[in-house]
Amino acid sequence: MRPTQENPVPGYRRMLEPAYWPYLLAAVLGCAALVEVAVREAGQPLTRPLGALLALAATAPIALVRAMPVVSAVLIAAVCLISPLIGYPPTVAVLVALGVACYVLGRQGHVRTAGVLIVPFVAYAAAPGVAMAAGGRTPSIAMLAVTAVAAVAGTARRAGAATARHEATDRAIADTLMEHVARGERARIARELHDVVAHHISMIAVQSDAARLTTPGMPAEGARRLVAIGETARAALTEMRRLLGVLREDAGTEVTRRPQPGLHQLNGLLDEARDLSAGSTRLIVHGGVVPLDPGIELVAYRIVQEALTNARRHAAGAAVDVELHYRPGTLLLRVRDNGPGPPPAGRTPGPGGHGLTGMRERAAMVGGSLTAGPAPIGGFLIEAVLPTTGGEE
């Protein structure tokens, strides 16, 4: 059961928390020092109170070691230096308190204070008259050893912890740099695959379809194999694009790059066309609108984008209609303007135009087709037929 205001933590459990250990240690050492003084001064009842008072004076300051380590260590050291001079050598509990205080000094980084604190014990142990003090030279040597060893141990522990933190920081920085380099390399590979390999694979699909449609008298087996080549190329392109998506997400570029556009962004594209052209631009939708495969929507968006660009270039100021016909299994896309139409003398911008070639390649890449030429009532017409999958699950 968790403690609440109605059910507070029991006192004995609270004393075991880290914030209370100095008080608990002071109580334990004080009791141990009193017992040792009582045993040592059993035959001298007149001097026992002074010995008990000195023992408590040397152990009680350990309660301040967490909040005021310097004050605690100085008080304990002072009592330890005075006690033998007046006939009371330090008890074992007092030596433990002295060692704890010096260890905490070194552990918390008070290295100079710990060094200064050792000096009186060195002088005390080396003084000629120490042998005449209570207990002889043994207590002075014990106090010097406890003070020096505890201070060095605390300082070494602090240095080790600092070294471990620095090593952890260096490892984290190195891991971050390696991850950054790896992500950059994966992003570079993704770009190269997209710029080079995707174009060539799409050309394989286009050329196989073109060879099948333009070669007269082709045997049925040859036409079947060309269809298989086109389908394999398109499948390979789809798989490669999935791989590119994994590489780009792994490279951490999904935050900085925009999602691929689709048909739901056509209104923004048409608004941009209206701003750049003096003519009007309309979007006409026939049939029930259904979500399509992202690849189909991307191809349709790019075809409309390129068609609007061509209209602005070759029929500046002309009105443009963009029509979407949603049919079962097919999306019919028409972009028509009322401009002057194709150039005279039959010079249509068909196979020779890079924009139209790119649109045909995009349509063929998803198994569709695209035609371009003069519109029935004037102007220029681009018509694409794209197969659909009926939407995403």
UniProtKB/TrEMBL annotation:
<feature type="region of interest" description="Disordered">
    <location>
        <begin position="336"/>
        <end position="359"/>
    </location>
</feature>
<dbReference type="InterPro" id="IPR050482">
    <property type="entry name" value="Sensor_HK_TwoCompSys"/>
</dbReference>
<dbReference type="GO" id="GO:0005524">
    <property type="term" value="F:ATP binding"/>
</dbReference>
<keyword id="KW-0597">Phosphoprotein</keyword>
<keyword id="KW-0808">Transferase</keyword>
<dbReference type="InterPro" id="IPR036890">
    <property type="entry name" value="HATPase_C_sf"/>
</dbReference>
<keyword id="KW-0472">Membrane</keyword>
<dbReference type="Pfam" id="PF02518">
    <property type="entry name" value="HATPase_c"/>
</dbReference>
<keyword id="KW-0547">Nucleotide-binding</keyword>
<feature type="transmembrane region" description="Helical">
    <location>
        <begin position="51"/>
        <end position="79"/>
    </location>
</feature>
<protein>
    <recommendedName>
        <fullName>histidine kinase</fullName>
        <ecNumber>2.7.13.3</ecNumber>
    </recommendedName>
</protein>
<dbReference type="Pfam" id="PF07730">
    <property type="entry name" value="HisKA_3"/>
</dbReference>
<feature type="transmembrane region" description="Helical">
    <location>
        <begin position="85"/>
        <end position="106"/>
    </location>
</feature>
<feature type="transmembrane region" description="Helical">
    <location>
        <begin position="20"/>
        <end position="39"/>
    </location>
</feature>
<dbReference type="InterPro" id="IPR003594">
    <property type="entry name" value="HATPase_dom"/>
</dbReference>
<keyword id="KW-0812">Transmembrane</keyword>
<keyword id="KW-0067">ATP-binding</keyword>
<keyword id="KW-0418">Kinase</keyword>
<feature type="transmembrane region" description="Helical">
    <location>
        <begin position="113"/>
        <end position="134"/>
    </location>
</feature>
<dbReference type="GO" id="GO:0046983">
    <property type="term" value="F:protein dimerization activity"/>
</dbReference>
<feature type="domain" description="Histidine kinase/HSP90-like ATPase">
    <location>
        <begin position="295"/>
        <end position="390"/>
    </location>
</feature>
<dbReference type="InterPro" id="IPR011712">
    <property type="entry name" value="Sig_transdc_His_kin_sub3_dim/P"/>
</dbReference>
<keyword id="KW-0902">Two-component regulatory system</keyword>
<keyword id="KW-1133">Transmembrane helix</keyword>
<dbReference type="GO" id="GO:0000155">
    <property type="term" value="F:phosphorelay sensor kinase activity"/>
</dbReference>
<dbReference type="GO" id="GO:0016020">
    <property type="term" value="C:membrane"/>
</dbReference>
